[in-house]
Design a protein that fits this description.
The structure is a homodimer.
Chain A lengths: L9 E6 L9 E4 L3 E9 L6 E9 L6 E4 L1 E2 L4 E7 L4 E11 L1 H14 L5 H15 L5 H10 L2 H9 L1 H9 L6 E3 L4 E6 L6 E5 L15 H13 L4 E4 L47 H13 L3 E6 L2 E2 L4 H5 L15 E3 L2 E3 L3 E2 L7 H18 L3 E5 L6 H14 L4 E5 L4 H9 L4 E3 L8 H13 L8 E2 L17 H14 L2 E4 L1 H5 L30 H15 L9 E4 L6 E7 L6 E7 L6 E6 L13 E5 L5 E4 L3 E6 L6 E8 L5
Parallel strand pairs in A: 2-10, 11-12, 11-22, 12-13, 13-18, 18-19, 19-20, 20-21
Antiparallel strand pairs in A: 1-3, 3-7, 4-5, 4-8, 6-7, 8-9, 8-10, 14-17, 15-16, 23-24, 24-25, 25-30, 26-29, 27-28, 27-30
Helix pairs in contact in A: 1-2, 2-3, 3-4, 6-7, 9-10, 13-15
Chain lengths: 648, 648
């Protein structure tokens, strides 16, 4: 027989939890969490429920009353204002005080005799008085009052408030399990990434860029409002089987190779390519960037060129073939002879794991706080789970971006086990319905609790078909979507700014890819895109509503070329309405519907709008409002809304 | 660091499990179980997976290979042929043999050099030979063959078969958790219930029926094909506050009272109402019914009339009010003074639980194997979980039907914690879309693994609006739906057979309800409904496809009054197509689409149909076929389909 058979309330389907508590749910500082559960009891008695939460294992529990929404679903919300691990659990109980009070009111309305009910009320109040001496006087009053007065006392609104304020916890269902929520730095959820190859940073054509050149670009990128600069690998590049321009299998001796073919006689994952500069140069760059509130994100690509020092020092970390050679990467019949993958099935996996962990820790020591991890889906998921946890033991603020453009469940799994942010399918979601469906999936599916999207219109690896040979309007509208749909987004820097749009025929790849050669950009030049990036990043910084991905609500607009969405802070103090024209060529117009319930609008609507890009002002007095977007003027509107007080 | 960091395959989202393994999934003897999971690894290597299952904790594991369906979802199916508890778990691994073989074929097609690959093949085969000596000769052959021959050997279909047959389990991901499936008797999933009040069983008008009268009705009910007879409570009926006709608060001394007001000076839950006969009479009835393959289902209503012996003997099991009275049932402002509920919050809950358990065990000892539990949702769910498990320790075959017409999550919870079958919302699902939506919910939601529906068109408590004042066609079509949609169904016996259709005004209750008075039925009479019940029950017994609820597939038919659904056995040896006309008044027709994929039909369709009710025969040679249902002839078709061999 169970130890306590008296409890009657059942608690099921608690959220947010990830894989039944196997992994923590994720939030960032200042975010709200909505704890929900199915809670019910036998019979007609009233029940109450509470969420208990605490910061850290040793923290003190805070109790938040839950509210019934519908169909036995309950909710309690609270804000997570500190970094670190929170824990929560639930309690629920039959509340005989509330049950008694509700029955009393109904019986009194039906004019039933209430003598015994009054006696019962006194019994309950005496119980409650033990913990709340303030109730002693009410109890005495009820006890001493004459019948009619006593009934009036209980029917009084003050008495209802007293019932609400004094839960009678007698036989409590403790949910038992404690679930954890990991609260990460704000940047985990709100970041604007600018990617460039340091070797292309020189202002002088034909010269190999250096960290010092990068440092000179900092003011430009900071003034555009980006807060993460991400570099492809900056380690020594393999010389054996080095790839040439356009992935040619033979490089000339002049060609720089792909930065992802890591390691040579110059060193490996803890070394820097000498042509870029010294470790001191790199550390100075990190420090200078930090002053501008920019983090330098480093690429971690755990693979080796054939001349990487590991290959000689630790042949046991690679797959040996029966002919004595080392297995290069392949996807039959394709061969990648310039890359040796690690063999994570090695019997010496422990030393391999330790060494790879030490790579992260080494760069953390140099000041790197953000890692963009290359192809994590080609290394074992259990390894990432371990190494991310290890690095976070040293510095819990480190951010890991998963570059896993792969199948949905693998992307999800990497996010579950610890990656802070993830590349997404946004790159290929183009039509209005594709975009809405994808956002809905991100926001409302269980992945909301662990998968933080980072939207990229292009990357050095991907020039999607819909941007090939396209003009600036297309690039601008995709940028606006990335930066306003998702609070984390990134661009393949100058290539995007200057509309690089030429693919290898029939492929979603850039021709003359910067991956295999040094590019010269005119870093002094700015254009329409530069301005728009600057203005949108400014709007993102000044408007808290744009600092979350989770608060999006799409608005109805009867034009399949126009997509409109609202983002608000919980308190409605900041409201942004974005309308993007998905047609880069023609002006499109339509009526957009304001979400009245969400905005708490009365029938008398009075909403002021300011376009944060054009600074034009409008007043809307109706639920449905005409919007026109002329892409040649600006492919989108970014409206800040002010709901006039009379409506609230 | 984890103890084994070499495994690379991840297993997630295993099904069927209930609340992450908190409760067993349910099946019945002979049912198939489809174990599914998301299974994936890093990289491009081939993976394999297997389900391991065993009967009983001490059983030997059987391994079933899983197959990939799509999007990293895997499945393995097997049949559960024995009663009792099964356990299953999963394994998955990177299969280097399969990876090697697949790469070999692709490289050979690309005419790459395969010398090293051949050496690798020999290494793998040698590993496998340790466990499978039959591979030694193949290994030697490959080792000794010349290059071209060796390649041909590997490319041969026999070699592919060898690869498939020889999984190379090197570093296995063991899922770890073992989940249980409880396999119950066939009757848990396939039963036809006939409910009647024993006191109405007399053939002589005005006489109180007896168990002996019930015994005389057995051949009638058996010939109609029912296999469960369910009696409302047969215990002594309270005399204090006894209810009269139509729930009158004052009964005359002649009135029999409601059987659900249990207990009087004659005894309580372990006694029988003397007017019905002796315990021996009851046991004889059970035995005689058993000979006809009928179980007698007993009603368990855990509540007491004020004169129940428990009230005096165990006042601590009831709620005492401050004035010394015992709390009667109420739903303020309604009072039910004839009923004392048990107080499950009693400090003496343990003795109460033990006593209630002993009630079940007492009747199990008398031969009762099926209990219909009255209002389980007004007693604590933890109590039911315990008492059902306790009763099953004594006899695992006992079936519990939950009469919880209440909110969805409570109904679901009762099913999860052990009730074998449940009453459902079918009673109120009337239109085609309501019926399809409801069936889809039952079949495809997680509840499929624990909630076994039992469909009732009416009960003594419920005469739904859509049957009030309705004629025989309405009763027939609802009967046909109940008995063919769900493999478990029941009818409120003679009242349904003879179309009792008069409600209390504005309520879904019978006027002059049999709950409060003795009814006289002309048990010798039969009618069109009697015949249809007989024929449908016969069809259910003779056609395995109708013995499951889980195999339903709705067919498209462009008429909202016609609903069509197919049920098949897994091997398609038995196929039943039911078409019901939801319009009781008019003939309806339309074209029904045969599910070609499900029935494995080629383009040359040749399907023979026999209507199991009218015995008419048809041949269908097309995907879309005309059907007409004239309710005045028969409100439904029950077709048995035979797919002619040429199509298969």
């Amino acid at each position: 027989m169970t130890t306590n058979g008296r409890y009657r309330v059942i608690i099921e389907n608690v959220q947010p939890i990830v894989d039944n508590g196997l992994h923590p749910a994720k939030r960032t500082i200042g975010e709200r969490v909505d704890v929900t559960a199915a809670i019910f009891s036998d019979g007609h008695d009233h029940i109450r429920a509470a969420v208990m939460y605490k910061k850290g294992k040793e923290g003190k529990w805070t109790e938040v009353a839950m509210k019934h929404t519908s169909n036995d679903e309950w909710i309690a919300s609270f804000y997570l204002n500190e970094k670190g691990e929170y824990f929560f659990t639930l309690q629920a109980w039959v509340d005989h005080f509330e049950t008694w009070h509700d029955g009393f009111i109904k019986k009194s309305e039906a004019k039933l005799d209430l003598k015994v009910e009054l006696l019962e009320g006194v019994v309950i109040l005496k119980k409650l008085s033990k913990n709340n001496p303030e109730l002693i006087s009410v109890t005495r009053k009820l006890e001493e009052a004459k019948y009619a007065q006593a009934i009036d006392l209980v029917k009084d609104e003050n008495f209802s408030a007293l019932v609400r304020a004094n839960p009678l916890k007698e036989i409590v269902t403790e949910h038992g399990a404690e679930y954890s929520i990991i609260v990460e730095p704000v940047k985990a959820n709100f970041s604007a990434w600018y990617e460039f190859f340091p070797r292309s940073a020189s202002l002088e054509p034909g010269k190999h860029g250096t960290f010092k050149d990068c440092q000179r670009l900092l003011p430009r990128i900071a003034s555009m409002g980006f807060d993460v600069i991400y570099f492809p690998p900056i380690h020594p590049i393999g010389k054996i089987h080095r790839k040439g321009k356009n992935n040619n299998v033979r490089a000339t001796s002049e060609e720089p190779g792909s930065p992802w073919a890591i390691g040579s006689d110059e060193g490996g994952h803890k070394s820097l390519l000498q042509a870029l500069g010294s470790l001191d140069d790199f550390k100075r760059l990190i420090a200078e960037a930090k002053k501008l509130n920019i983090d330098i994100a480093m690429d971690i690509a755990f693979q080796c060129a054939p001349d990487h020092p590991y290959v000689k020092a630790h042949p046991e970390w690679f797959m040996q073939r029966p002919d004595g050679s080392i297995q290069y990467a392949e996807n039959p019949p394709k061969k990648y002879q310039d890359i040796y993958p690690f063999n994570f099935e090695s019997e010496n996996w422990e030393s391999l794991w330790e060494e790879l962990k030490s790579v992260f820790l080494y760069w953390v020591d140099q000041g790197v706080k953000i890692f963009r991890v290359d192809n994590p889906h080609t290394k074992p998921i259990p390894f990432w789970e371990w190494v991310i946890a290890e690095v976070k033991k040293k510095d819990p603020d480190v951010i890991f971006l998963s570059e896993a453009f792969t199948r949905p469940k693998i992307m999800a799994s990497l996010a579950k086990i610890g990656f802070t942010q993830s590349y997404t399918y946004f790159t290929w979601r183009v039509t209005k319905s594709e975009l809405i469906t994808y956002m809905d999936e991100l926001i409302t599916s269980p992945s909301r609790n662990y998968f933080r999207p980072n939207f990229w219109p292009t990357t050095p690896d991907i020039l999607p078909y819909h941007l090939q040979y396209k003009g600036e309007n297309s690039f601008i509208l995709r940028f606006a979507l990335a930066a306003t749909l998702s609070s984390n987004y990134g661009v393949y820097g100058a290539a995007y700014e200057f509309y690089e749009n030429k693919p290898i025929t029939d492929k979603e790849e850039f021709v003359d890819s910067e991956k295999y050669e040094i590019r010269h950009y005119d870093w002094k030049r700015t254009n329409r895109m530069t301005d728009i990036m600057t203005m949108i990043n400014k709007a993102r910084k000044e408007n808290k509503a744009l600092q979350s991905t989770w608060n999006i609500q799409f608005c109805t607009i009867e034009n399949s070329n126009l997509i409109a969405y609202l983002k608000c802070t919980d308190d409605l103090s900041n409201i942004i309405l974005t309308v993007v024209n998905l047609d880069p060529d023609s002006s499109q117009s339509g009526y957009v519907q304001l979400p009245k319930v969400k905005l708490k609008l009365s029938d008398k609507i009075n909403v002021k709008l300011t376009d944060l890009i054009t600074e034009e002002n409008y007043t809307w007095a109706q639920e449905w409002n005409f919007v026109e977007v002329n892409p040649n003027k600006m492919p989108f509107h970014l409206f800040k809304l002010t709901v006039q007080e009379s409506n609230m």
